[in-house]
Design brief:
With 326 residues, the chain is mainly alpha-helical. The protein is built from 14 helices and no strands. Helices cover 83% and strands 0% of the residues.
C-alpha cells in the first residue's frame, strides 16, 4: 500500500496548497444544479449499461439483477478497500450467486478493464490535438493504449490456442506436480473465460455496448463541465474523461483519492485556467460516485447479509490461499 499512500498524500497536499478553497466553495454555489441532476441521472444510466456490458462478457449466464448488484458491490469495495479488491470481490460474490466459477468470471473482469483503458486512450488521443499544451498526454495515451491492445491480442491468441497454452504449461510444470495440478485447473478455467473473445457475435455485442457506455460517459463529463463552465465544449468531456480514467489507474489510496482529483482537475485546469472550479467539478464527480455505489452497493450487500469488513476478511483469506497454492 505504501506507493499508493505516498502518491495520494502528495497529490492531496499539493491540491490543498495550490487551490483556493474559498473559491472552490464559491464555484459550488454558482453551479447549474439542473444540469447536475441530469449528470447524476445519466451516471445511473451509465451504470445500468455497464451491467449489460459485463453480463455480455459472462455470456448471460447470470441474471441481470445479480450481475448489476454484484458490479455495484465491487465498485463499493474499490472505494473503501485497498489493492482494488473490488475486482476480486465481484468475481467472488457472483460465483456464489450463479453457476459460474470464480476463475471463469475473473477473465471477464480482466477483459473489461483492459478494454476500458484502450477506449480511454483512444478518446484522449482524439481530444489532445484540440487542447493547447497537452502533447505529453498524447504520448502517454499512445503508450498505454498500445500496451492494452497488445494485451487484448495476447488474450485472444491464448483463447484461440487454448490446448497449446495448456500443453506448454504442463510441459514447463511437469517437475512440480502440485503446481501442475492446481495451476492447470486454474489456467483451464481462465482460458475458458477468455473464450468470449473468439465468439464473433458476443465480441461484437460486447464492443458495441462498451462503445455506447463510453459515449454516455463523454456526454456525462461534458455536461458536468458545462454545469460549472458555461464556455465548455464537447472536447472538454473527452479530454477530462481520458485523463480521469488514467488517474483512476494510478496506484493510490482506495477510491483513487488524490490521483483522480489530480488528473481530472488538472485536465480541466489546462482547459480553463481555473484550478478552483476544476477541483469543485472533480469533487462533484466523487460525490456522485459515492452516492450511487453506496446506494446500490450497500443494498446488494444487505440482501446477501454481507458487510464490507466481513468481505474484506474473506477476500484476504481467498488471495492468501491462492498465493499458497501457487
Amino acid at each position: 500500500m505504501l506507493p499508493g499512500l505516498l502518491i495520494s498524500l502528495t497529490l492531496v497536499a499539493a491540491i490543498l496548497y495550490f487551490v483556493d478553497l474559498p473559491a472552490v466553495v464559491e464555484a459550488f454555489k454558482k453551479a447549474n444544479y439542473g444540469l447536475l441532476l441530469v449528470v447524476f441521472l445519466l451516471g445511473v444510466a451509465w451504470l445500468l449499461v455497464r451491467g449489460i456490458v459485463w453480463r455480455t462478457l459472462l455470456r448471460e449466464c447470470a441474471s441481470y439483477r445479480d450481475v448489476f448488484l454484484t458490479l455495484m458491490e465491487g465498485y463499493l469495495l474499490n472505494n473503501f478497500l485497498p489493492f482494488r479488491l473490488g475486482e476480486i470481490g465481484r468475481a467472488f460474490l457472483l460465483s456464489r450467486k450463479s453457476e459460474l466459477k470464480f476463475v471463469e468470471i475473473l477473465p471477464t473482469i480482466v477483459i473489461e478493464r483492459v478494454t476500458d483503458l484502450v477506449f480511454s486512450a483512444a478518446i484522449l488521443i482524439a481530444a489532445v490535438p484540440f487542447v493547447v499544451g497537452a502533447s505529453g498526454a498524447e504520448r502517454i495515451a499512445f503508450l498505454i493504449g498500445g500496451a492494452m491492445l497488445l494485451g487484448l491480442a495476447v488474450m485472444y491468441a491464448l483463447a484461440r490456442n487454448r490446448q497449446w497454452a495448456l500443453d506448454v504449461f504442463h510441459n514447463l510444470s511437469h517437475r512440480w506436480p502440485v503446481v501442475q495440478r492446481l495451476g492447470g485447473s486454474f489456467l483451464e478455467a481462465f482460458l475458458t473465460g477468455l473464450g468470449v473473445l473468439t465468439n464473433p457475435w458476443l465480441s461484437a455485442r460486447f464492443f458495441g455496448w462498451m462503445a455506447l457506455n463510453w459515449g454516455m460517459a463523454i456526454v456525462q463529463y461534458y455536461l458536468l463541465a458545462l454545469a460549472y463552465y458555461p464556455q465548455a465544449q464537447p472536447v472538454w468531456g473527452m479530454f477530462s474523461l481520458g485523463a480521469a480514467a488514467f488517474g483512476g489507474a494510478i496506484p493510490s489510496l482506495p477510491g483513487a483519492v488524490g490521483t483522480l482529483e489530480g488528473a481530472y482537475g488538472g485536465a480541466l485546469t489546462l482547459l480553463s485556467g481555473d484550478q478552483s472550479t476544476a477541483l469543485a467539478i472533480a469533487l462533484t464527480w466523487r460525490a456522485f460516485n459515492y452516492a450511487t455505489t453506496l446506494t446500490f452497493g450497500l443494498y446488494g450487500l444487505s440482501r446477501e447479509g454481507q458487510t464490507i469488513g466481513g468481505l474484506y476478511r474473506e477476500l484476504m483469506k481467498l488471495t492468501n490461499r491462492e498465493q499458497v497454492d501457487r
